[in-house]
């Protein structure tokens, strides 16, 4: 499908697996901010850009049988995976909607909380998407965002020029597809312009070593993402292989560490 080919990170089996690694690395932080916002049984939650639904199932656990998760994504491939998992796990409180966030219509629904992680970085009209999310909130409802504000904080010690090359190629590929890797810088102002009240702004940057779950997350992104960058014309095959060889050598180097890409955690409230 054209929409699947247009998805800059891909939708193949390797990407499905990588997204699972990513969710496990960030799951505790997601759960913490969801609890901060008081997500509880009976709530309705909008999961924007849900992908294959890893967060959707955690949210469905929190809202319980009396609540509902409305999962929205443009990828039929991802949503098929979500539906299969929903059936196998017996969840009946997840509603699935396929729509292009840039141009399609959101489901007609009022929600208590909207959750959006690493989605606004990839759409062509992020402010419009943000406005549609805000319009879906009940009075007093919360929007929770995890978006990059400085992707180039991804650094290594010892210094690895191949990792820097990979980071530059990733950022270029997102921008070439109409996205913006550092979209987090614009979001607080947009939220206030839309009439929401900022409750929390918190930068998240970690320093990790091999074996840490965040290292595993970034490792999986290099492993899978380098092939996608070749497909998109942002890396040659020899450079892709050189990047992977350098990354695995870094990983085997005693006392090596990485600084993760800078993420901004945002919580904003709709007016009562």
Description:
The chain has helices at residues 2-6, 13-36, 54-63, 76-89, 126-135, 161-176, 187-193, 213-231, 237-251; strands spanning 44-48, 68-73, 94-98, 111-117, 137-150, 155-157, 197-204, 207-208, 257-259, 262-269. The chain is α/β, with parallel strands linked by helices and 272 residues long. It has one domain (2-269): 3-Layer(aba) Sandwich (Rossmann fold). Helix 2 runs parallel beside helix 3. The N and C termini lie far apart (42 Å). Residues 1-5 have low confidence and may be disordered.
List keywords for this structure.
272 residues; alpha/beta; Rossmann fold; seven-stranded mixed beta sheet; three-stranded antiparallel beta sheet; 10 strands; 44% helix; disordered N terminus
Number of helices: 9
Count of DSSP strands: 10
Which class of secondary structure composition applies to the elements? alpha/beta
Task: State the helical fraction.
Answer: 40-55%
Tally of individual domains = 1
Q: Biggest sheet: strands, sense, closure?
A: 7 strands, mixed
Specify the overall morphology: globular
In whole angstroms, the N-to-C terminal distance is 42 Å
Q: Strand order, biggest sheet?
A: 3-2-1-4-5-10-7
Q: Name the average pLDDT.
A: 93
The CATH superfamily is Vaccinia Virus protein VP39
Rounded radius of gyration (Å): 18 Å
Strand content: 15-25%
- Give the uncertain stretches in residue-range form: 1-5
CATH topology: Rossmann fold
Known CATH architecture: 3-Layer(aba) Sandwich
Run of helices and strands: HHEHEHEEHEEHHEEHHEE
CATH class identity: Alpha Beta
